Amino acid sequence: MTDRPLWHYGVRELAHAIRSRASTAREAVDAHLARIDEINPVVNALTVVFPDRARALADRVDAALEAGEDPGPLAGVPFTVKENIDLTWSATTSGWTFLAEAVPAHDATMVRRLLEAGAVPIGRGNMPDWGLRWDTDNDLFGRTVNPWNPARVPGGSSGGDAVAVATGMTPLGLGNDYGGSLRLPAYAAGVCALRPSAGRIPAPTLEVNEPVSLSLLLFAVNGPIARSVDDLDVAFTLMHGADGSDPTALSIRHPASYDGPRRVAVVRDPLGWGVDPQVADAIDRAAGALAAAGWEVVEVEPPMIEEAATLWRRISSTEMVGAFLPGALPAPLSEGSTRYFLDNVKEIEVLESGEAYGAAWAQRVVIAGAWERFQAEHPVILGPVSARRMPEIGFDLSGPAATTELWRDHRLLVTVNFLGLPSVAVPTGLDEDGLPSGVQLIGPRNGDHVALAAARDVEARLGTLTPVDARAGAAIA
Questions:
Q1: Would you please indicate which residues are annotated as catalytic (active-site) residues?
Q2: Which CATH superfamily groups domain 6-475?
């Protein structure tokens, strides 16, 4: 044990402390619950907390260890679960008032696998209703606050879990990523996130009994948020693989290390549309870290980014636009999510015919093939998570042009979703205003271990930023 509080520990470190009996699971859970009581009223990251259940599960872990039994590799480690991931004793609301009582019958596979590993769900993370904004606010639970600067958005849609991880309320959060929803809030909070390859972690709900959109199957993934790259790897190792329920889930070996070509393509300003100086500095620092670790760093841009980002926006908007017709939903979404989506649709040409829709998906194969060939030569792509620092609250609701500006800022972010590639968001330090900076490391298809290896080398040189004291807006030493 060290003199640091238990809520400061990472996933692997805390699991080791509990399994070695340097700490009890009950002590670890109590430390995180106390941290939640202290910090959550400030940031509103967790929508509901499970103190009694968490303590009961922790006691079960301690009893197993006392009896000489093995309660699992993550025995007693707390984790949080985003509001759209099934957990049997808590409603899966997706941040929507209509689903406030929708308690599922089964745990999502990713939750079940962590439970089987001995981990302890401690609360749920906030999100925008239906995950429709790059911000975290809704009518059911309210706004999540960026712990570094309350005037800036915390990112979305997995903003609650990212803020909870960043502030020490949990060492691990579970979220998902359809258009950057893991990586963007991690970037805002100064933590790490893994957007796995499509199909590597099963769906957030165990049973899919109704048709779902093609973009949801191919663009959206589930993944972990943590304070270190190593902890992302620990969680992914436990959660990935087919489950006999999700027809898109794959079982692919996840190597513990990467020994292939160490070549990185650096994309400083995708498409030449401009990046903030702080973003450019972050990419420089990450490129330097990789070069120092022995990677060959080359300045080259992957192909067809504009086509990929444009088709991501057109397909996703086309598939959702019907939900905003009168009477299409059983209850209205929040005014913010509704306004954002309708403003966004004003800025694009939706795919109005089946022929146009089919042609868009056919073009995805062309773009994916070009990237497959590119990444055969450049296994890792280093670039911005966003071309800008996090905007001030309300920017995304300031009119149709703002939705296009955000999409342009996130052009590389959504290209990854369009292609179903793995990507790790990792912090690179604080800028001159005390805001986190960061980058993403994009791996080849099903090369999640490749992206993790590059991110681990960046982190080894540039360090970590969290936990952060949300009350003071400063990192805790």
A1: 82, 157, 181
A2: Amidase signature (AS) domain (3.90.1300.10)
